[in-house]
Design a protein that fits this description.
InterPro entries (chains A, B): MadA (IPR005777), NagB/RpiA_transferase-like (IPR037171)
GO molecular function (chains A, B): transferase activity
Pfam families (chains A, B): Mal_decarbox_Al (PF16957)
Strand content of chain A: 15-25%
Helix content of chain A: 25-40%
Organism (chains A, B): Turicimonas muris
Structural class of chain A: alpha/beta
CATH class of the largest domain in chain A: Alpha Beta
Radius of gyration of chain A: 25 Å
Protein name (chains A, B): Malonate decarboxylase subunit alpha
Oligomer: homodimer
Mean pLDDT of chain A: 95
């Protein structure tokens, strides 16, 4: 009944893994720090799919640096899979001829150089992904040969403590641990007695090799926003958001993007939100990195729970002291989990609100601009309507325009932008630069962050466009133009149309919402500086040096 | 700066957990089997949110039975969260007045009784969810107080081996383990020496209590389909699927629903698929339970990888012997993970194909019928277009109807149904019974399994409607009618319209696809019985007794 006659080998990966590990000629799982380059050369083969934990906050930086020291005559054409391209080494490995192909999600700090290397032909891009899309492919068509991750501590059996910054580690690692790939973890500390591990985040049998890094891994306080930089305009937009969106739809569960706009909202909850009588009624359950600007809202009793994608430098003690709010382990320290938090933010959150760099006339948006292939990160996971959601909340049902027996709700996807970016660059544009970037890079489609059909609300300093109420694409465009300020798109708005849209409630200006613009000043913020946040936290928040200005 | 003056307690959950566990007056984590009822009464409090691992295959049945023995005077008004309502005890606990509210995903075997209890007012339903939607809420607004799970084995520290049927366990358990909930695991075996655990799937510090169950947990071979029951009509539909959908769009990665239709496709790969020259070109990477009917395709070299939601009884040895295909641990046994596989199926699979019970004229479908609140399970997670996907494949790009710079691809969502169900009940209906069920049960929306706008292809014994090509809802309805046979919906089809649709390639009948219907017989199947599957597997597949008919 079988086709062919030769006995097929069904455990090639396992045999190869065993052979590679045997090349190390060592007992146990611990690679001596000074041997890391030789060890990587022994176990990594040309063409391998290698996952490198470039994470949003936490970086497997020692392994990234070591990878760059491999001999490209021995190890080359690697296919790198890096969630977040955060370090120069993530690209050095291409320049040095060790790696060839790249699949990634986000390349914030390295976006310019990624574009350049792509243009120079030094790297080939598989695809740009969203976070959970990239993790997903590790289990389907991008199953890794080697996974390189970072943890705080390990014992000699390979049990890992990943602590507050667990982040992507479990999702990356499981794909190799359970498909005969090789898992190598860099750790800040190796303990002899397993009992000295604060807790086990990853069981030792999932990890093949550990190495103590030359210095603790790099971690970036990526989600800390200094309240000093919040402008009156952000306050105005925050007040509009709270009254015209959060309060109107009674948003219970939500995710905030990163930025001064959403930081302003967080700092308005204990002041303007309190004044609106919304405490205990909205913003109870969060999918959020531990934003320091959320501290005043937490301390004022607004927040029931926060599940986090990652940790945040300086917030460790505060989170450990607020276990009713944050997810913490039996040891008392926080646990984050990006895969689960992205899943939770997609399926269990009523609203996503975030910023972007460019929006076109129809409402498509992107943060990819000319020369900067910045990628997607997690925003499109949060910033779309998940069609696999079935439970109803008031906010979700509010988005139904025409009741019908087969209608369904819609996630609130709010784009909150100032009409102009820095250097007087308009946010609203005829064509997204992403379209040209795609053409230049030979990408099959433009890298659009959030598609127009997913966006329900657009908020600018001019007002709110309730896009989910649009009757047609034509009307949708008019609604966008109505709040697009003096950009070319905005100047197209016909005052009569705008008036009609305001009267029908499809567009609301601050006065329509009963908001007195003169009150929109920084004095409305519950904290005006990092020092204020430290005070709110009772001294538990310990901001990194670069945020200490007092 | 603080509002209020009383010092707030921020670790209520942790204090309460400690107090509850102290009530047990025992050393260590092991609850003696005979003490389980008293132990549950000690740690569970009225009104608690209790997750019970009712899983697709694996059941925490000992804990479910024990829960039913609690004294409702002491423990009542529980809010049960049960992914899959599979056992009578899942509902007994409501009848006995111990539980009051229910959130669930799927209630296959208990769907009739769920409806009855709801009607009788004996239970209140929070919401009916899809699987990852339910897991998501455990981290946001349904954070559990107690989680009850099942594993094969534990050591005395609480390290768990969940083995081939890991399924939901990690996703359910993490929500309590990291938010001061109580985790209790029933296990078939407790080993004294941690080294006697095959591997650790869940670290001991995540688990508070373990109990050896009175008998091994119940596990159901839910995804085994006997080839004997595949009819010629299924073969015909399978041939159309392979030629008209799989081959046409070059589908690489996919998920199959459960049923004889998709089992037929699996068994046609080594025969008709081979004839079409598609081996190595399609169906390489699967998100799938370990369907025994996939064995011939695996043995014939069609399948590169299978990541699984759960295990399948009888497939253990076969999977362990095929580690290049299945995900297995360092110990050699399979690892499944429903949360990750649902995520992978959503974001990394080109296609979902599955069956349903009712489809309306627009293409909405549901398996909820009068008197049967069967829930959703995972089909809507797979069977929708994930707007957070950004990587392109041929199949995904094929769904773009009008090229534009801001276009995006679409997942192939294929509904494969016979025009009539058993007892001559039409599949195509004017109104889904789900609409009436929702009204009767006071649900805010009808429980629709897959919404019309997500469906790209409809396949019946009559032909294929390429719904993604429809220009309008009007045309879409005509396309559906064209393949709806002699149902009322189908009889509406105007022969001239059908002819036009066939000529434009929007509808294809077998002859349009060059398929000779006379060849569509069971003789095309690579295996015609369970015994054939055992033979294909070289004796590694060990079917459960109920499937052994030889």
């Amino acid at each position: 009944m079988q086709f062919g006659s030769e006995p097929k080998i069904w455990d090639k990966r396992r045999r190869l893994k065993k052979e590679r590990l045997s090349r190390l000629k060592q007992n146990g799982k611990v690679i001596p720090t000074e041997n890391i380059v030789a060890a990587l050369e022994a176990v990594i083969e040309p063409g391998n799919k290698v996952v490198l934990e470039g994470n949003n906050q936490k970086q497997a930086d020692f392994l990234a640096r070591s990878l760059c020291e491999l001999n490209p005559d021995k190890v080359h054409d690697l296919h790198m899979i890096i969630p977040s391209m955060s370090l120069p080494e993530h690209l050095d490995v291409f320049e040095k001829g060790i790696a060839r192909k790249l699949d990634f999600s986000y390349s914030g700090a390295q976006s310019l150089r990624t574009s350049q290397l792509l243009e120079d032909g030094a790297l080939e891009i598989g695809a740009v992904h969203t976070y959970i899309e990239l993790y997903s492919r590790l289990y389907v068509d991008l199953i890794p040969d080697v996974v390189l991750v970072a943890a705080y501590a390990a014992d000699r059996e390979g049990n890992l403590y990943t602590g507050p910054s667990t982040e992507d580690t479990p999702a990356l690692l499981e794909a190799a641990a359970f498909h005969d790939g090789i898992v190598i973890a860099q750790v800040n500390e190796i303990v002899d007695d397993p009992k000295d591990l604060r807790r086990v985040d990853i069981p030792g049998s999932w990890v093949d090799l550990i190495v103590k890094s030359d210095k603790p891994f790099f971690i970036e306080p990526l989600f800390t926003r200094d309240p000093r930089q919040i402008k009156n305009q952000h306050v105005l937009m925050g007040m509009m958001a709270l009254k015209g969106i959060y309060g109107r739809h009674m948003v219970q569960s939500l995710n905030h993007g990163i930025g001064f706009n959403t930081a302003a909202i967080e700092l308005l909850l204990p002041t303007y939100g309190e004044e609106l009588g919304l405490r205990g009624k909205i913003c109870k359950n969060w999918c959020l990195n531990p934003h320091p600007t959320l501290i005043p809202a937490i301390e004022s009793g607004w927040v029931e729970s926060v599940h986090s994608f990652g940790g945040e430098l300086g917030m460790e003690k505060y989170m450990a002291a607020r276990p009713d709010v944050f997810f913490t382990g039996a040891d008392g320290s926080m646990r984050s989990n990006r895969a689960f938090c992205q899943m939770a933010g997609q399926y269990a959150a009523d609203m996503f609100i975030g910023s972007t760099l460019q929006i076109d006339a129809e409402g498509n948006s992107s943060t990819v601009t000319k020369g900067r292939l910045s990628g997607f990160g997690g925003a499109p996971n949060m910033g779309h309507d998940p069609h696999g959601r079935r439970h109803a909340t008031k906010a979700w049902l509010d988005m139904i325009k025409e009741p019908s027996p087969t209608a369904r709700g819609h996630k609130l996807v709010v784009q909150m932008v100032e009409t102009f970016q820095a250097k007087a660059k308009p946010t609203f544009v005829e064509n997204l630069e992403a379209v040209q970037v795609a053409k230049d890079a030979g990408m099959p489609l433009a890298p659009i962050m959030i598609y127009a059909d997913d966006v329900t609300h657009l908020l600018t300093e001019d007002g709110i466009a309730y896009l989910y109420m649009a009757d047609s694409m034509e009307e949708r465009k008019k609604m966008i133009a109505a709040v697009a300020g003096i950009t070319d798109i905005g100047l197209r708005a016909n005052p009569k149309d705008v008036e009609k849209l305001r009267q029908s409630g499809k567009v609301a200006f601050p006065s329509d919402l009963g908001i007195d613009k003169s009150r929109a000043t920084r004095s409305m913020l519950a904290a005006k500086s990092i020092a204020d946040l430290v005070e709110w936290s009772g001294g538990l928040y310990e901001p990194p040096a670069k945020f200490r200005s007092w």
